[in-house]
Amino acid sequence: LVERTRRQTRGWLLGFPLSAPLSRSISMSSSGEVTSSGEKKIPEWGGQYEALYKGLHMVFTNKFEKAEDYFAKFAHDEKNPVLSIRACHLLLNGFVKFFRALSTWGKQAIDQALNVIWEAEALAASTTEQSDFLGAKLVRAHATLQGAFLQILQKRFVKAAYNIRCSWKFFESAMEDLENFEGPNEIKAEHRASVKLGVGAFNLILSLMPPLVITVTNMLGFSTNRQLGLRLLREAYVENRLMSPIAGQVLLIYLSTISAMLAEQTEEYRKEADVVVEDILKRHKNGLFFLWTKTAHLRSCRRHPEAIKCAKQAESVCKDAPGLAMMSAWQSGWCNMLMLDWAECKKCFLKILNSEHKMTQDGVPGFYCYAASLSAINGGDMKEGEELLHRVDKACKNFDLPHEQYAKKMAKKLLEFLESARRKEKSTGGSGSSSSTKTYPDKFISEVYLQNMQLIVEWNFVKYFPDDVRARVRKEIGVWYSRRVEFRWTHEQMAWYHLLMSHLTFYGGNKTKALQLGLAAIGHVKKAKNRASTLTAQCYFFVSIVYLNQSPPDFDRAARKCKRAREKCSGALAKRMSFLLHALNSRIARLRKEHEEQAKTAKNARKTGAGEEDNKGRVNTQEKNDNAEANGEGEGGLFSGTFGYVGGAVGSAVNWGWGAMAADEESDDAVEEDKLEKSHAMNDEKSS
Question: What is the dihedral of CA 379, 383, 385, 391, to 10 degrees?
């Protein structure tokens, strides 16, 4: 109550007033009459919102177990006749479990969350009272949406799609009911914010889908307007209602993480994320949800020391949930890796790995072990690094998760590489021990360093390197590259080197050189004996991004490379890569459309500006043509009109990318690109 009273007056954020208190108090008498205002009778469930606010505030201040007990107590209170409120308590209880499941990838956590969510949906569906029917409908909408996300994690895509459709229908119906709602303004505002959260999240999430999926969803009646989604989420957040913190969290995840991952983050997004995250942390001090999001935001802004400090703060304040607290070390580990602080990086991942908390072990312990082994070897501790590599296979438990599959595969590859190098060293008279100063330790360390950079490339984190670290990586990888003949680097290793250098050069500002290096990487991939599908997809993916960022953008080649990347996409991280490729495909289509519209607008503007001059000169031109027509020297005539028509048709075919002429052009471009790729690879071989 003190907290609520202290925040009665707020400033402005992003053009919207934040004058509402932290929670709403609608006190009621037992007969249902309002005692704190002069309004007439309101629905009975209105006075119970205070308990919902109190429980949700526990969640956002890291009192997770206490919040779960609190929600369960109210949800199973059979003396409460308002079923929609009981269902809402169950829904928020499921939200806590939903967050745990998403944070730790635990199967058991997902099952527990789904059980509570479906129980909330069933209880809301049993509501018969007209007075709380809208509230029950919104509970069902949010419950089916949360359940669908968890079903996607379980790979039950058909059921997930059905529940997503049901959720959208509930929200659509709730929007119609909201217009005719006759209750008090406070309750109507609560429902309006809940609807804005749901509809805004739908628009934002569906707008990230591939163009074909967007077309189909639009035909089915879904809305996929990203700007509308962001606007609704902003409005839901600044209204400061029950669901406002969740709306703010969804908004922050897009502004700080998804937009950066899809290369769509702008300076305006960063500034907005700064304002929102600071404001929301004032409302819910040291909230783990928001500290994690702030850490990701600072990392995307390449402010890694601040991000590490924020992650440590999240770890220290979350005493109620040690499993979730350990996940803060995950954030710190990545930030330290991006700063090449190998000792701190190893410490963070080992801390998670050695944690005895069951929730942590339900995650990806094999990946923690693999990341710690890379950091140990890069930090100079070969012995500990090798021990951790041998430990990866036993640590892997959840093989249906891509992180575990990736860690096991790469650790096995490193161990085979090490054994092969030792056998060769023994055959040439080396000792074969780990302390040997022969060639194989350096060769192995170079492979570990390259694999660590490969990990950063595959997670699309090269863009988060600070400028000084980017220069350091370029220098260190250059040292190993200078010894490529001595180490007998394969085409696959050469491809990873060129792909990494392409990333570093691109984010350093030299797009022309980045394209040359990317094409060289593709050339080496084509010559590799065992073509790694992940590497092939990564090469085509990044070259597509470079083409898209040229001036002017080369949309045709960007789309073609993106298509080839989708064809080659497979392996442990295929789902993550597939999402990025579909998002890139959507971006290419959207930018192409915008570019064509801008060109069309500019052309019309030129025509309008030149119209008067054309009218003045038209009479003189016509007279000249009439005089010269007999000699076949006219400036208009049959041939000019015919070629103009054909030229327009060809231009349309090329612009749209359809038809035989476009196919011929694509074939010619593909041949030209193949020549470029091979030439870059051959030049690299000659220098070797």
Answer: -160
Tokens (6 digits) for 26: 């609608």
Q: Tell whether the torsion through CA atoms of 508, 684, 491 and 377 is positive or negative.
A: negative
Please tell me the predicted confidence (pLDDT) of residue 437.
Answer: 41
C-alpha dist (Å) from residue 465 to 225, 371, 377, 469: 32, 18, 20, 6
Q: What CA–CA distance (Å, rounded) separates 161 from 174? A: 20
For residue 633, pLDDT over 60 is answered with: no
Name every residue whose Cβ is closer than 8 Å to that of residue 475 and which is 6 or more positions away in sequence.
Answer: none
Dist. CA 255–CA 204, nearest whole Å = 11
Tokens of 12: 């402005």
Q: Please give the Cα distance from 190 to 80 (Å, whole number).
A: 20
Question: Reduced to 3 states, what is the DSSP secondary structure of residue 17?
Answer: strand
Residue pair 348/332 in contact by the 8 Å Cβ criterion: yes
Two structure tokens written together for 268:
């305006």
pLDDT of residue 6: 33
79 or 408, greater pLDDT: 408
- Helices vs strands, H then E, count in the chain: 31, 2
CA 365, 371, 375, 381 torsion-angle sign: positive
**CA–CA distance from 64 to each of 56, 57, 321, 330, 352 (Å)?**
10, 10, 7, 20, 20
Query: For the segment 1-57, what is each residue's pLDDT rounded down to a tens digit?
Result: 334 333 332 332 333 333 232 233 333 222 333 333 434 333 445 557 788 888 888
On the CB side of 364, CA atoms within 13 Å amount to 21
Contact present, 478 and 515 (Cβ < 8 Å):
no
Q: State whether residue 23 is helix, strand or coil.
A: coil
The three-point CA angle 473-681-670 to 5° equals 115
Q: Region 523-530: what's the mean pLDDT? A: 84
Ranges 97-101, 260-264, 467-471, 587-591, most confident: 467-471
C-beta pairs of 113-118 under 8 Å, 24+ apart in sequence: 113/146, 113/150, 114/147, 114/150, 114/151, 116/90, 117/90, 117/91, 117/143, 117/146, 117/147, 117/150, 118/143, 118/147
In 3D, which of 579, 530, 16 has the Cα closest to residue 258?
579
Sign of CA pseudo-dihedral 461, 464, 470, 476: negative
Backbone torsions φ then ψ of 265, nearest 5 degrees: -75, 130
Confidence at residue 684, expressed as pLDDT on a 0 to 100 scale: 58
Give the pLDDT mean for 408-412. 91
Exposure string for 645-655, b = 16+ CB within 10 A, e = fewer: eeeeeeeebee
Q: What's at 550, amino acid-wise?
A: Q
pLDDT at 47: 58
> Tokens for 641?
């009109």
In the structure encoding, which two tokens stand for residue 525, read together?
């991939």
pLDDT digits (tens, 9 = 90+) for 640-678: 232 232 233 323 332 333 233 333 333 444 555 555 555
Q: How far is CA 461 from CA 229, 388, 614, in A?
A: 27, 24, 55
Distance CA 318, CA 384 (A): 30
193/135 Cα distance (integer angstroms): 12
Which token pair is 408? 């096991």
**In 10 A of CB 273, how many CB atoms?**
27
Q: Are 210 and 589 in contact (CB under 8 A)?
A: no
DSSP character string of 390-421 = HHHHHH---TTSHHHHHHHHHHHHHHHHHHHH
The residue-averaged pLDDT of 546-563 equals 91
Q: What is the DSSP letter of 634?
A: -
**Greater model confidence, 619 or 527:** 527
Name the token pair of 93: 């209880």
